């Protein structure tokens, strides 16, 4: 090969390694934040309902800090190379989607849309060739949301989400497998609702002994 050509190739390889390492550092930071969020939000299962709002107030600053890390990632990705690098941060981004949607659901009982999640995470329109929230990553986050919610308290919301997924043409294998897992959550909900219904219909032990 031509020596000059080899030099050019080596320079390109060196730049790729440099970009990868810088992205890796930011992804590590992003992952730390999303794991912190997951740990904080896991407390909802042991927190009294009247204390949930205080818990969410403490979660908000950590969620908002993800904006800074995402901006740093967008700055590192060269123009028109989003698809080349996105797999490095996709898991962290999906976890951030989960956290954002769970916080909103606990606060208002509503589901954030994809554009709303992008806005919360500070994802800018001008980054579309470097960093965006794809439909796939958004849906992965929603499935994690369903997996996290207590079936006995959120049956209507979970069933509505499941119905929405059923209307989508899911061609991604990983996403389809995770969607299939929702069927087990729906079955669990139906079993819980059925069990609660039976308990309401059954006479109490006190009435039986009276």
Automatic annotation (TrEMBL):
One of its GO terms (cellular component) is cytoplasm. Keywords: Cytoplasm, DNA-binding, Nucleus, RNA-binding. It is found in: Cytoplasm; Nucleus. CDD domains: Translin (cd14819). One of its GO terms (biological process) is RNA metabolic process. One of its GO terms (molecular function) is sequence-specific DNA binding. InterPro entries: Translin, Translin_C, Translin_fam, Translin_N, Translin_sf. The keyword Cytoplasm applies. Transmembrane segments: none annotated. Pfam families: Translin. Belongs to the translin family. This is Translin. The gene is TSN.
